Amino acid sequence: MRIVSLESLQTLIPNTLMENLGLEFTGMGEDWIAARMPVDRRTCQTYGILHGGASAALIESLASVGAQLSIDRDAMRCFGLELNANHLRAVQKGYVHGVARPVHVGRTTQVWDVRLHDDAERLTCVGRLTVAVRPKEGAPGQALVDKVP
User: pLDDT digit string (tens) for 82-100?
Assistant: First the structure.
């Protein structure tokens, strides 16, 4: 995975779902990328706990950015194919922190494992995103993909 600055990752957030959810990238390495998301009015459901859809959005955001950093973006692009999330523990306040790691980075597909934890480092959700890797030519939405550092 190509290593870029956290500042350049933050440039992906404006005008996206990630901005609406308050997502913030917090770290990355050769085989991982991390972010956090607040547990607040933007991300909670009616019972005052973190919404499962918000967790899923964090999972997909982390894995998608990781996938984009793992390909030749001049020739290829990534699209999510399947998202799975198992919610293990409710979160009512603070942040949920996520770390994504590739399980498989192939020529045409990738699989990413994402673990979410609360501020006390308790596992709250596990997720997996399967990604298709396809040629870049003529695909819709190119401007957004080209923003990835």
Answer: 999 999 999 999 999 999 9
Q: Report phi then psi at 30, rounded to 5.
A: -65, -30
pTM of the model: 0.90
Q: Is 60 a catalytic residue?
A: yes
- Domain with residue 13: its CATH number is 3.10.129.10
Distance of alpha carbon 62 from alpha carbon 66, whole angstroms: 6
HSE of 116, CA atoms in CB hemisphere, 13 A: 30
- First-to-last C-alpha distance (Å) of the chain: 12
Catalytic residue among 19, 60, 121, 137: 60
Q: Within a domain: residue 74?
A: yes
